[in-house]
Amino acid sequence: MTLKPGEKGKLEFTLGPEHLGFYNRHVEYVVEPGTFKVWVGPNSVEGSDGQFEVVSGW
What we know:
Elements: E1 22-23, E2 29-30, E3 34-40, E4 48-54
């Protein structure tokens, strides 16, 4: 999606636990449970935020 200056649009995406993992010291890919905050905006003052929780057993 390309927007012109001042133009608005809606963008939706899926962010799941598989995008939040990392490789531990045993080179195993792990996803730790916890609350994750997401911020989307043009700068650190303006934007929208949300959060979701990854639970154990994923």
